[in-house]
């Protein structure tokens, strides 16, 4: 609510669109980016409405219901397809995560369930936040969803490592990257999911300072 502008960059979009369904109502263009070639390919299949693309309709309908009109799902799909202008490779450990592309600073950068999976230690996490934060214009916003106290997650019998983070570590890294935290909320993750040892999920919105001093 209240976040809007011309450009939103999604850093670490994965093969998913759920995180963009509400965002596309508030920004004129969306730039999606991910490290994995297969994730970008899967996203492009959906954007181009290709045969075999994942069916996101149940999720789109649910988001439309949350926004007040479940029947607008087809309109929302069409709007999102039009607004995603680029799908780029990104590496958050680089000073310019979308190198060799050079993007003008965006009104908003969105990152969901990405940085904690891409970083091996707290120092790397702090530096990647500075890298990602540099994509945001002064006065613009960073929107993050991060898992807390997770060391692994499993998918399709593959186990991936995750950097174990506490809320204060995330907030301090965001502030160290030149932002003021405006909203921060922790929701517990229900125990008993054998696919992960995640204990909570942190949602955070931060505003980039006009200067880094």
TrEMBL record:
Stretches of the chain forming a coiled coil according to its record: none
Protein name: Nicotinamide N-methyltransferase
CDD domains: AdoMet_MTases
Biological processes per GO annotation: methylation
One Gene Ontology CC term in the entry: cytosol
Database matches in Gene3D superfamilies: Vaccinia Virus protein VP39
Lineage, top ranks: Eukaryota, Metazoa, Chordata, Craniata, Vertebrata
Keywords linked to the UniProt accession: Methyltransferase, S-adenosyl-L-methionine, Transferase
PROSITE patterns linked to this entry: SAM_MT_NNMT_PNMT_TEMT
A molecular function (GO) term: S-adenosylmethionine-dependent methyltransferase activity
Pfam name, any one: NNMT_PNMT_TEMT
Family membership: Belongs to the class I-like SAM-binding methyltransferase superfamily. NNMT/PNMT/TEMT family.
């Amino acid at each position: 609510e209240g976040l809007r502008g011309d450009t939103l960059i999604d850093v670490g979009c994965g093969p998913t669109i759920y995180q963009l369904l509400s965002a596309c109502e508030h920004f004129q263009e969306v730039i999606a980016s991910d490290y994995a070639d297969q994730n970008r390919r899967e996203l492009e299949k959906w954007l181009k409405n290709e045969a075999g693309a994942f069916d996101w309709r149940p999720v789109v309908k649910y988001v439309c219901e949350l926004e007040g009109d479940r029947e607008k799902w087809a309109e929302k799909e069409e709007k999102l397809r039009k607004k995603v202008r680029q799908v780029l490779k990104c590496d958050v450990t680089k000073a310019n995560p979308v190198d060799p592309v050079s993007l003008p600073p965006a009104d908003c950068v969105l990152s969901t369930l990405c940085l904690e999976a891409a970083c091996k230690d707290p120092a790397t996490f702090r530096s990647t936040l500075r890298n990602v934060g540099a994509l945001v214009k002064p006065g613009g916003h960073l929107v993050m969803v991060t898992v807390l106290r997770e060391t692994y997650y499993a998918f399709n019998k593959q186990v991936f490592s995750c950097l174990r983070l506490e809320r204060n570590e995330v907030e301090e890294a965001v502030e160290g990257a030149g932002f003021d935290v405006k909203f921060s909320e922790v929701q517990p993750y229900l125990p008993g999911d054998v696919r992960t040892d995640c204990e909570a999920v942190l949602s955070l919105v931060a505003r980039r300072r006009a200067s880094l001093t």
